[in-house]
Design goal:
Number of helices: 7
Number of strands: 0
Order of helices and strands: HHHHHHH
Helix content: 55-70%
Largest sheet: none
Strand content: under 5%
Shape: globular
Structural class: mainly alpha
Length: 162
């Protein structure tokens, strides 16, 4: 089945929802050790970047090893907290539209390709429909992960507007 797991629609809807949010509201941290909306969105950019490579390489490599990454260090190194919200949002949108196209154009047989996923890889939720250990599963899990973090951004922004 050709699908992007509604990534295109989710991305465009969230972009429209978030584009007019004030930059200062997106920089508010709920606690010193918690991410702001900017940092969560930066994490989603990192996730898109990492998964883009995984989704492409999985189509050409027999034994794709999926490694995690140090998400807090990545967010800090890129200083998402001090970047412009709209710039981050545009980057995130464009990366996800690219991923949406990649997902849609991945053949059903390629989606069923088994991958070697180390035990350290933790899927985002039990509601996934694709077979665990396949490229399709990784793609679907990516969208589940993205939706979870978009919900966190919405919650943070609703708290700043109270």
């Amino acid at each position: 089945m050709r699908t992007d797991f509604n990534l295109r629609e989710i991305t465009l809807q969230a972009f429209e929802e978030f584009i007019l949010v004030d930059d200062k509201d997106t920089a508010v941290k709920p606690a010193p050790d918690k991410w702001s909306a900017k940092e969560i969105l930066g994490h989603l950019i990192d996730s898109a970047s990492n998964n883009h490579g995984r989704f492409v390489r999985a189509q050409f490599e027999e034994n794709l090893s999926i490694e995690g990454y140090k998400q807090n260090e990545w967010v800090d190194a890129q200083d998402y907290q001090n970047q412009e919200w709209q710039d981050l949002l545009i980057m995130w949108r464009q990366f996800n539209l690219l991923l949406s196209n990649l997902m849609f154009n991945t053949s059903p047989s390629m989606r069923e390709k088994k991958l070697s996923i180390p035990n350290a890889f933790q899927p985002s939720g039990p509601d996934l429909k694709e077979a665990p250990g396949t490229l399709g599963y990784l793609m679907e899990d990516y969208v589940v992960h993205l939706k979870k973090h978009l919900g966190q951004i919405r919650n943070l922004l609703s708290q700043t507007n109270d």
